[in-house]
Amino acid sequence: MTDATSQTRHIPDRLHSRLYATLRSWEALLLAVAVAIFIVNSFTSPYFLNAWNLSDATFNFTEKAMIAFAMALLIIAGEIDLSVASIIALASTAMGFAAQYGAGTPELVIIGLTVGLLCGAFNAFFVTVLGLPSIVVTIGTMSLFRGISFIILGDGAYRGYPADFAWFGQGYVFWVITVEMVLFVIIAVIYGVLLHKTNFGRAVYAIGNNPTGALFSGIRVQRVKFILFLLTGLMSGVAAICLTSRLGSTRPSIATGMELEVVTMVVLGGVNILGGSGSIPGVVIAAFVMGLVTFGLGLLNVPGIVMSIFIGLLLIGVIALPRLWTMIAARRAKP
Amino acid sequence: MTERAPPVVSMDAITKTFPGVKALDQVRLDLYAGQVTALVGENGAGKSTTVKILTGIYQPDGGTIRIDGAPIKFANANAAGAAGITAIHQETVLFDELSVAENIFIGHAPRTRLGLIDTAEMHRAAVRLLDSIGAPFDPRTRLRDLGIANKHLVAIARALSVDARVVIMDEPTAALSHKEIAELYELVETLKAQGKAILFISHKFDEIFHIADRYAVFRDGAFVGAGMIADIDEDALVKMMVGRTVDHIFPERQPNVAEDVLQVVGYAHPTEFADINFTLKRGEILGFYGLVGAGRSEFMQSLFGITKPSKGVCKINGQIKVIRSPADAVANGIVYVPEDRGKQGAVIGLPIFQNITLPSLGRTSRSGFLQLAEEFKLARDYAERLDLRAASLDQDVGNLSGGNQQKVVIAKWLATQPQVIILDEPTKGIDIGSKAAVHDFMAELAAQGLSVIMVSSEIPEVIGMSDRVIVMRDGRIEAELADDALTPETLVRHAAGITTPAQMEEA
Amino acid sequence: MLPRFLPVRETILSVAILALLLLISTRFSGFIAPANLANVFNDTAPLIILALGQMVVILTRCIDLSVAANLALTGMVVAMINVALPGLPIPVIIAIAILLGALMGAVNGLLVWKLAIPPIVVTLGTMTIFRGIIFLISDGKWVNAHEMSSAFTGFPRAAVLGLPVLSWVAVLTVIIFGIMMARTSLGRSIFAVGGNPHAAVYTGIDVGKTQFLAFVLSGALAGLTGYLWVARYAVAYVDIAGGFELEVVAACVIGGISIAGGIGSVGGAVLGALFLGVVKNALPVVNISPFWQLAISGSAILIAVAFNARAGKAKGRIILKSAEAST
Q1: Which of A108, A199, B139, C153 keeps 20 to 30 A from C133, CA to CA?
Q2: Are B402 and B449 part of one and the same domain?
Q3: What is the count of structural domains for chain A?
């Protein structure tokens, strides 16, 4: 008889080192793009490498990125929320309404977050309890939530927020470091840990890759999805507080079209729009890339609408080019 | 039938390779006018690939297809149809939202002078076709409103709607009742009389010997032999098919049955099953036999919390447990290895180790935070116990072969340390070597005190492995068999609902 | 047997629209006067045309979010062509609009077909790109009424048999699409691809190519609407029809077109568009602020999708003989 242990086939944990995997990742490529843009920008404009300018530039992406982190989890789990910008509008309207009756900053924050959570729960109900496709549900709630803002505000606006409310969107923690930047970092870390280091995050990946398989593995799929919609709503509430505080006013058209920029940021960050893969570091880098492009072009006096061409090209290009490359390579391999 | 007549269709040295798998290796197959050729082979022998090549879905990597001796290539499904080859597919490849007539004629509907689809003519033609195969429904009916057997008739009508010389029937009787099968046989005779060449794919030997004129045998993607049915008997054909003697050696077991672990009382569902009562003892292997569609999988999934029963109680170790979700089932020690491995079993896209630890994360993690080292340790334990063949534990489970994916699914459940493991068709679509390994492993599990429920449609497996067998028919328990009563004949009789008075008296 | 041949969704939606009209007429009877209804229809015509294009795309399991941007870009291009070459006859203008729209649709379609990029990503991207291009070619300036030729702006408003040309274009599109979906192999392929892509391959239908053609159709209609829109409102600028793509998708969803593909009808899309059109036109009449419109259409989407999901829920497998007898 041969020794039993020598017969056991040993399977290695990993085929490649973690470093190798990191270097070959989407995030590495994206980081290289970000660095390249940074270098190009610093050469093309003398105003680029200025701490205060750079600090100002972060407002281009901090609010969107806060939502993008929650959205990334939702998209990885195979769902989507197109109503986030409308949640901002509704939350901002609710805060403005309360401010008219003298609500102080703590109350406003609670109201903003609560409205965000309620909107998220509303979406979650339709998707997880009634089992409807999230893209249609959130196209509906996108109209509904903003529609309620329009009903309340019409073509008017709320102003008159308490003075200390401005701290969220206009305040500095230290030197050029804004409150929003700090929030951005904290939220990025929380979502990074949640997605990559917890059982919950693992469930998110499992659901995105195969919802039936996840259910059959004992994962409470609908509960996880419900929580993800709540989180996206909550983050929209946070973004609503920051944006309202920064602008100092609320119109029902606030943050129009932001949902598309958020989705773009998530997809650019390497999250598969069909679910199953993606990472928070990727979204963080994507946020910087979008911020740098917008800021750099802004310094060159390129209007915002033209910048959107770059964002659009970037969105399609980052997905199309690798696929085009494999297609060409495959064709070459076949004589 | 003149032996000299050349074949209508002839496949010569056809090879087809998929990434990592050689599905067909230099196979040949000849089909003759007015004759039924049965293509025989186990799962994975290459039958489906052959059908897909003949119907233009796949293009072969090598070899030649000839029609009436002339070489031909099919660029797509239309080209094969134009060459007179049509197929009644195994999967329902029909469109629920279209009408019966549209389903029959999609792709080749009659046109008016303006080039539009001539609906009136299409409906007339559909009625003619449906009448000819004894299908009495209105061609305007939406397909979704038809039952499964009628859908099958639509598929047949579709195949006949093109003026085909070659008709391929891929497991045509799998979903049909006895009466419907008899009607199908008549239809095959009609087609033969019309001089069509028929390729008949089936797992059922009685069927093959009843209807086929010729046979061709494939094994593991290679051609093994062909000839006239009249010149061969069942044993010889089976031998050719499996490449060894028929007697599969099942592991020798010493049933060491102890106390009741699981008691199911009065489980019922509005449409799928009713009155399910049984007990399962520690260390027992309980077989569930029945025809496809008898409600076995549906009941098992209900026991596992996927669907809610309308009535019934489930007791584990004597205590009543309410199972509303798979998570509840796992928490109570009941796990389920599904038949549909790709969709319900493995989470393809996740690495092997994450698949294995998915239901056990509560144990490998610390207060909700992952501990990768613990995960790898647990995954390695079970992967090695099951002799998993994989390059590494962080490899995507989708890159594994069917047998190894099955091992990952089983490892996933064993890692939860369950009390009851339900295996639904555990060896379906697995090569013979892996089959024996799964059987040995089941025996080992039972010996270690795990209770096993095995749903299987393979009679040798059911008899060879089970201590006791429950036969289900039409959503109900038809019989419970053990010891001497456990014979192939009794199983088939109960599953089909045939009970002779003589046997009733004996029992 | 009767209900099987009666399109349930369309009937319910028609009844809902009629009930809505009745309700409005109790507040303002002039609303249901033929002349006013014709007005409402004319107002809804662009939405009807675009909804038909979107329907085709959704039926093939895709979505086209770039229609409004396509409309705006085509509109700007033909307006600028009209300014540069005022003598160019209207049929040529229309042909250019349709071709240009179809070209943009083809870009979407190619990316979906050849590179297999998810349609939502593709059209999200092209939507922003098309809008940006308008700014580039127009330099952000408006093309105003006085710069356009009277033939250019007059065409959609010209009355033929009592209805403006714009309305007739919508009617014609409905008829053409009705015939195309029911009586051509492309129409049936579109249903087949969305209903069961796997089976479509077996019947020799090229799934990607069918999706490509759906995008081309949707683009062509967006282009056509681009001209009609710009000519009717006699102005072209970057933001025209901003956010209109969602209204178009809403019309389809309300009309019972399943976002999962394969289920829907021309009648449904038209009724969905008409429902939104009636709501939009009725609000000012019954003294409800037009600001209610967005919330109402949002609610209508949610109700429609919830209702359609209930109606279309797949029946479970029937194994028990007793259950079979009772159904």
Answers
A1: C153
A2: no
A3: 1
Assess whether B180 and B327 both reside in one domain.
no
Range of the domain at A308: 67-316
Residue B1, pLDDT score? 45
Are residues B411 and B428 located together in one domain of the fold? no
Could you say which of A144, A264, A273 has the minimum Cβ distance to residue C299? A144
CB contact under 8 A, C191 and B294: no
* Domain termination site, one of B417, B444, B475: B417
What are the residues of chain C with a beta carbon less than 8 Å away from any beta carbon of chain B?
4-5, 179, 182-185, 188-189, 191-192, 195-196, 198-199, 201-206, 262-263, 316-323
- For the segment B230-270, what is each residue's pLDDT rounded down to a tens digit? 998 877 887 787 665 445 677 877 776 678 999 999 999 98
Domain coverage including residue B403: 347-417
Which of B83, B81, B103, B76 is closest to B92 using CA atoms? B103
Please indicate whether, in this complex, the C-beta atoms of C188 and B102 are within 8 angstroms of each other: yes
User: Which of the residues C137, C294, C296 would you substitute to probe the A interface, choosing the one with the greatest number of A C-beta atoms within 10 Å?
Assistant: C294
Buried residues in C111-149 as b, exposed as e (16+ CB within 10 A): bbbebebbbbbbbbbbbbbbbbbbbeebeeeebeeebbb
Alpha carbon of A238: minimum distance to chain B alpha carbons (Å): 25
Q: Cβ contacts (< 8 Å) between B94 and chain C: which residues?
A: 196, 199
Distance (Å) from the C-alpha of residue A217 to the closest C-alpha of chain B? 6
Residues from chain B that touch C204, judged by Cβ atoms under 8 A, are 56, 76-78, 81, 107
From chain A, the residues in CB contact with B387 under 8 A are 8-9
- What is the residue-level pLDDT of chain C in tens, covering all 327 positions? 334 445 777 888 899 999 999 998 888 888 888 999 999 999 999 999 999 999 999 999 999 999 999 999 999 999 999 999 998 999 999 999 999 999 999 999 999 999 989 898 899 899 989 999 999 999 889 999 999 999 999 999 999 988 999 999 999 999 999 999 988 989 999 999 998 888 888 888 899 999 999 999 999 999 999 999 999 999 999 989 988 988 999 999 999 898 888 889 999 999 999 999 998 898 888 888 888 888 988 998 898 888 877 665 555 566 676 655 444
| Among B399, B417, B435, residue at a domain's last position | B417
Which chain B residues are Cβ-neighbours of A208 within 8 angstroms? 349
The total of structural domains in chain B comes to 3
Distance from the Cα of A8 to chain C's closest Cα (Å) equals: 42
Does C276 lie in the same domain as C182?
Answer: no
Show which of residues 266-295 on chain C sit within 8 Å of chain A, judged by CB atoms: 289, 291-295
| Partner-chain residue, chosen from C201, C316, C320, that has the shortest CB–CB distance to B274 | C320
The structural domain count of chain C equals: 2
Residue B74 in domain: yes
Return the pLDDT at A67.
Answer: 97
Q: How far is A11 from chain B (nearest CA, A)?
A: 5
Let me know whether B155 and B289 are in one domain. no
Residues B119 and B212 in one domain: yes
pTM of the full structure: 0.86
The residue in chain C having the minimum alpha-carbon distance to the alpha carbon of residue A315 is C125
